[in-house]
Amino acid sequence: xxxxxxxxxxxxxxxxxxxxxxxxxxxxxxxxxxxxxxxxxxxxxxxxxxxxxxxxxxxxxxxxxxxxxxxxxxxxxxxxxxxxxxxxxxxxxxxxxxxxxxxxxxxxxxxxxxxxxxxxxxxxxxxxxxxxx
Length: 133
Known about the structure:
Elements: H1 3-11, H2 14-18, H3 20-37, H4 42-45, H5 52-69, H6 81-85, H7 92-108, H8 113-125, H9 127-130
Helix pairs in contact: 3-5, 3-7
């Protein structure tokens, strides 16, 4: 990345680099679809297809979480990560499959390297709150 591109990336929030709420909503929709196609974690997500209201609720919480956590407006008011994942006994392989899906979607949208790294850093910072709780 050129110095000028690095300067622009450094001055824009992650929220801005992800394209704001509308783009984050689109990314979340695609990430959930990737999860539903991923054989390692599909069983956890496919039941939502039969529960459209619940699916919309989960997506809404994810969008709010991404918006708030990336420096966007508003405050996330959903459950904490440990509360949301308690009792699910998520394995490291499942966790990594979900992270891989996120990166696949970001790559599909030609997201710059620094933004991908920043999203990955957030994902890994939540790992212990999501796995085996």
